[in-house]
Write a structure and sequence with these properties.
The protein is built from 7 helices and 3 strands; from the N terminus they run αββααβαααα. By secondary structure, the protein is mainly α. A 3-stranded mixed β-sheet has the order 2-1-3. The longest helix is centred in the first third of the chain and has 40 residues. It comes from Anaeramoeba ignava (Anaerobic marine amoeba). This is BTB domain-containing protein.
Length: 157
């Protein structure tokens, strides 16, 4: 009986330690997200600019080359030149901010069906394969008989 009690105590302690580790890992992840969010939204150490000009909308977003190149194969290839900026005129401000949120700290907003198709196209353009998989799964889970034609009409074949 003593052996059984000792095993139960050891198992309980091990479970408690595992839970504490999981909580610490979550805390590390939350801090990392907060830190990268602060990097994106702050002005420190930004060494690259993304310019977008379309219709009446033109703006500049300052970013970090190292973060972009580490998270996106598109940027990794594009930023090998010694340029200090890039023009991405096929996107609007909201799309660029959305994709940068994903690149910096893994946050992406799925507002509506049209947004999903746009984000899928953007994820393909920037070669963000994990985001592409997430969006494809979200689309496949969202399609039903009543909205199929709406999705299909937005896909460029």
């Amino acid at each position: 009986m003593d052996n059984n009690n000792n095993n139960q105590i050891e198992n309980a302690n091990q479970n408690q330690n595992e839970n504490e580790m999981k909580n610490l890992e979550k805390k590390v992840t939350k801090n990392l997200i907060k830190d990268y969010s602060n990097l994106l939204n702050g002005n420190s150490f930004k060494d690259f600019s993304i310019f977008v000009e379309n219709k009446s909308n033109h703006f500049e977003i300052k970013v970090h080359k190292s973060i972009l190149s580490s998270r996106s194969p598109f940027f990794n290839e594009s930023l090998r030149q010694e340029s200090l900026s890039i023009s991405l005129n096929q996107f609007n401000k909201k799309e660029m901010e959305s994709i940068l949120s994903y690149i910096y700290y893994g946050n992406i907003s799925f507002e509506n069906q049209e947004n999903l198709i746009q984000l899928l196209e953007i994820s393909i353009y920037f070669k963000l394969n994990l985001l592409k998989e997430i969006i494809q799964k979200k689309i496949s889970n969202s399609i039903n008989y009543s909205n199929f034609s709406n999705f299909y009409s937005k896909i460029e074949i």
